Q: What sequence folds into this?
C-alpha cells in the first residue's frame, strides 16, 4: 500500500503541478481524511523535489486544512462536527481537555496522528485567537517536517 502511494506521489512530483498537488494533499490530510503527509513528503523527496520548498508547501497545505478545522469549530461548534463530519464527541472532548490543560502550546502537536486533527477544532470552539492559533500550528508543522527529513535523510 505504501509503495502504491509512493509511486503515485512520485508521478505527481514529476508533473508540472507538483507543488499544487502537494499543497492540496497536505490540506486534505490535515482534515479528518486519513492521509499521511509524511508519506507524501518522503515520496517527493525521493523523486528529487526541493526539501525546503516541500517543507514550506506541506506546512502551508497542512495549515490550510487545520484552518478549515478551526473555522468549522468556530462556526459550528459541536453540532456541525457531530452531524456533518461525524467526529465523536468523546474524541473532541479529549482534545478540548488537552487544550485547556496545556494551553495553546499543545497546538505545536497538531501534526500528531489521531489527536492532532481534533485538536485544531477546539481553538475555534473556544474562540481562541486565530493569529495565535496560526503561529502555533505553523511552527509545529514546520518543526515536524524538518524532523521527518532529518530522520529519513539517509534514505531519500
A:
Amino acid at each position: 500500500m505504501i509503495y502504491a502511494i509512493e509511486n503515485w506521489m512520485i508521478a505527481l512530483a514529476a508533473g508540472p503541478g507538483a507543488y499544487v498537488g502537494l499543497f492540496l494533499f497536505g490540506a486534505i490530510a490535515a482534515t479528518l481524511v486519513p492521509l499521511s503527509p509524511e508519506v507524501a513528503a518522503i515520496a517527493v523527496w525521493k523523486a528529487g523535489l526541493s526539501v525546503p520548498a516541500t517543507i514550506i508547501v506541506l506546512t502551508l497545505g497542512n495549515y490550510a486544512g487545520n484552518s478549515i478545522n478551526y473555522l468549522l469549530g468556530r462556526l459550528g461548534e459541536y453540532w456541525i462536527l457531530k452531524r456533518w463530519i461525524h467526529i465523536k464527541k468523546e474524541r473532541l472532548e479529549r482534545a478540548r481537555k488537552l487544550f485547556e490543560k496545556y494551553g495553546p502550546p499543545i497546538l505545536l502537536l497538531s501534526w500528531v496522528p489521531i489527536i492532532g486533527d481534533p485538536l485544531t477544532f477546539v481553538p475555534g470552539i473556544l474562540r481562541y485567537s486565530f493569529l495565535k492559533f496560526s503561529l502555533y500550528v505553523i511552527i509545529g508543522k514546520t518543526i515536524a517536517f524538518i524532523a521527518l527529513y532529518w530522520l529519513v535523510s539517509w534514505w531519500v
